[in-house]
Amino acid sequence: MKIGIDQISFHTTQYFVDMAELAQARNEDPNKYLIGIGQKKMAVIPSTQDSVTLAANAAAKILTPTNRQQIDTVIFASESGIDQSKSGAVYLQSLLALPQQVRAFEVKQACYSATAALQLACGYIALHPDKKVLITASDIARYGIGNAGEPTQGGGAIAMIISKDPKILALEAESTVLTENIMDFWRPNYATEAKVDGHYSGHMYVDFFDEVFAAYRQKTGMTLANFAALAFHLPYTKMGLKALRSVLPQADAGTQQRLMANFEDSRQYNQIVGNLYTGSLYLSLLSLLENTNTLQPGDRLGLFSYGSGAVSEFYTGILQANFKAALLPKLHQAMFAARQQVTVSTYEQLFQQQLPTDGSTVELDLSQDPAQFVLTGIDAHQRQYRKQY
Length: 389
Description:
Blueprint: E1 3-11, E2 15-18, H1 19-25, H2 30-34, E3 41-44, H3 51-59, H4 65-70, E4 71-77, H5 88-95, E5 103-107, H6 113-127, E6 132-141, E7 154-164, E8 169-179, E9 185-186, E10 195-196, H7 198-220, E11 229-232, H8 237-247, H9 253-266, H10 268-271, H11 280-291, E12 300-307, E13 311-319, H12 329-337, E14 340-341, H13 344-352, E15 362-363, E16 373-379, E17 382-387
Parallel strand pairs: 2-14, 4-5, 4-6, 11-12
Antiparallel strand pairs: 1-7, 1-8, 2-3, 6-7, 8-13, 9-10, 12-13, 15-16, 16-17
Helix pairs in contact: 3-5, 7-8, 9-11
């Protein structure tokens, strides 16, 4: 039985800041951001959006009357959770008007958790082939204003429906994993912004990829020639490029050219959004599928997932017949085209407009947020949400 990604969608906010302008404001050479980390634009998240609303806005794009009734599990993957006890998935069940007869829970392990959710979902569907699982990977990457991590911020959400006989990508059984307790990135409970050792994290990312890919080759006997494309977790797109370059010498010239060309397709969306944490690998996959002119049904894709701290996995999938028909490129491109560029000073103001941490009552101004699902404020220590249309 084939099991995998049946549908996939993405949502981000209506605002972005241009990376060249941000570099100039920080007295940096724009090429440090445009080439050095490989980013062009960075999503800016207003206070009326959080990980729950981003996830709901992404998921609404792929829900239909039919699959609503088949979904009996909702998994919320995030490292930007809004509550230490209640999962974001419970809010999604209500906001999306899903049946109450669903299990709903949250998973966390830095940027790896969406892959954990995917593997859990595939195992569940193997036992319950008449059901579907909704996964959202939703995050807001925050490092602070003016520090080294600032240009690798961003935010948004991926939503995926996992099922038997998937329309897009059928996952293969074999994968390789690696876990090591390291301190390359973390966010203590008392902090609203992440702590990161950027250079160390970058080195560990490449090392983990090399190790799980080598293990996969040994386990399966496959080589780079077996893959039409590789998709990477892309907190910033230069990181994935470094990992790809680390293994390209294993391949002949034709394979190297193919993998590099497909990598360029796979990073187009990430370059104009920034860091999605849990969703970054799957935004890269979506970018690859919606921008490619060369991939064909039956092609094998390799996917590298990395979550700091650190857990990684390399796994593979086969593109399905008519996979292009199941995608939503026009919807996503229209969303990107409608975004509004903000100045660096406006970005800084939006960044600093955080909800109170003492539970104070607050009502947010919704007049500038066109999203379907919004955060309206806090009342009695409870976040208040609204569906606007």
